[in-house]
């Protein structure tokens, strides 16, 4: 393979790895019945005029399988944190006792599990679309290289490599979704 073709293949694989990493992050935000500090990762609170992640203004701990405790470092942050959690609409109502905020996760109903799995499936589909777009761009780049003098056989080999890489990453997305479904459906 030529250097330019190797560069195209490497770039495509790197981009596909990023798509998988993004999927993993998004799947951790979808709750599966047990408490996890990552559930509030995407929630920002107004802290001295700047939107700041809750984990940077409070101590976030897991008390048990269904309870998250948020203890702000400054007492005046209780109300803004509580407001941010409500606005984030994560399906949990915060309980403020004046010192800390507790999030009690209700047990998941079958309907809610299906809804959450549907959301996970949508994230998986977004990742698959991203991976396919990366494949399309890489193949277009290979065709451009072929017009610039790359032999047809080498271009075909490059396209085959891109397709194999794509298939491997699509299978990885399915594997992540299957694992998340198992985690969600476990009672």
Structure notes:
With 187 residues, the chain is an alpha+beta fold. It has two domains: 3-29 and 109-185, Ribosome-recycling factor (Topoisomerase I, Chain A, domain 4, Orthogonal Bundle); 37-104, Gyrase A, domain 2 (2-Layer Sandwich). 59% of the residues lie in helices and 15% in strands. The protein starts with a helix and ends with a helix. The relative contact order is 0.17.
Concise account of the structure shown:
It is built from four helices and six strands. The chain is of the alpha+beta class.
Overall number of domains = 2
What class would the helix/strand composition place it in?
Answer: alpha+beta
The low-pLDDT segments are: none
Report the sheet-strand fraction.
5-15%
Protein topology:
Layout: H1 3-29, E1 44-47, E2 50-53, E3 58-64, E4 67-72, H2 78-88, E5 94-96, E6 101-104, H3 110-147, H4 152-185
Antiparallel strand pairs: 1-2, 3-4, 4-6, 5-6
Could you name the key traits of this structure?
single chain, 187 residues, alpha+beta, Topoisomerase I, Chain A, domain 4, 4 helices, elongated
């Amino acid at each position: 393979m030529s250097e330019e073709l190797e560069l195209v293949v490497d770039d495509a694989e790197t981009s596909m790895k990023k798509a998988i990493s993004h999927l993993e992050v998004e799947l951790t935000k979808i709750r599966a019945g047990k408490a996890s500090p990552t559930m509030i990762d995407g929630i920002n609170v107004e802290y001295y005029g700047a939107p700041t992640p809750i984990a940077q203004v409070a101590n976030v701990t897991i008390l048990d399988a269904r309870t998250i405790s948020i203890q702000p470092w400054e007492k005046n942050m209780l109300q803004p944190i509580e407001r941010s959690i409500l606005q984030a609409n994560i399906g949990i109502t915060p309980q403020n006792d004046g010192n800390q905020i507790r999030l009690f996760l209700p047990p998941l109903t079958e309907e809610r599990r299906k809804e959450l799995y549907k959301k996970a499936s949508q994230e998986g589909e977004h990742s698959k679309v991203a991976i396919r777009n990366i494949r399309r761009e890489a193949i277009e780049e290979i065709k451009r290289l072929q017009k610039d003098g790359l032999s047809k056989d080498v271009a075909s080999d490059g396209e085959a490599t891109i397709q194999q890489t794509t298939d491997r990453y699509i299978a990885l997305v399915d594997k992540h979704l299957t694992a998340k479904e198992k985690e969600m459906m476990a009672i």
